[in-house]
Amino acid sequence: DSGVTQTPKHLITATGQRVTLRCSPRSGDLSVYWYQQSLDQGLQFLIQYYNGEERAKGNILERFSAQQFPDLHSELNLSSLELGDSALYFCASSVSGTATYEQYFGPGTRLTVT
Amino acid sequence: EDQVTQSPEALRLQEGESSSLNCSYTVSGLRGLFWYRQDPGKGPEFLFTLYSAGEEKEKERLKATLTKKESFLHITAPKPEDSATYLCAVTNFGNEKLTFGTGTRLTIIP
Fold first, then answer.
1. Tell me: the pLDDT tens digits for A22-33?
2. Distance in angstroms (rounded) separating the CA atoms of residues A81 and B95
């Protein structure tokens, strides 16, 4: 158990809908990262938040957005969903800003868009 | 842009048959190279971080090494429970995002 929690584990929804994925980082970790894993693309970085502020952005679609709250949990919002958004979404956390910055991953949310 | 290439894509070994997995990388200033293990439908599990060429780290039957262009994950006398996909990733000094390779799917046959 990495200490990172994600909810829900599974999500099935229809095209055009909006969903919210939630992540709680390990105790003491200030950075949260979101990754998407699909069969054809592998693990792709989406976005990083550090202590409530956006720090880095990857190939995140404009239909996707994220935020980190004062208690450091994070939410990833996916809107106007398309079939191609079906994937595993992982959250990771790290201490950041120190020599040890390994990212520890949560169990993921499997999103199926029908 | 950082790039990571892993080989082979898949590897089947008999229990006890040692081998190595390769990770070649191109990065603008390597900050760290990471190895993760991923079981089907689960999140990646952190194994090692390597920071500079010549560095080696060991954990049970696994040993990771790093050169200026590639990293190897050596597995000695593997057991069926070592079956998983092994992922390699890098970060550069510009940010903390992980750039992953596509992984090596390792199967250990009893």
1. 999 999 899 999
2. 29
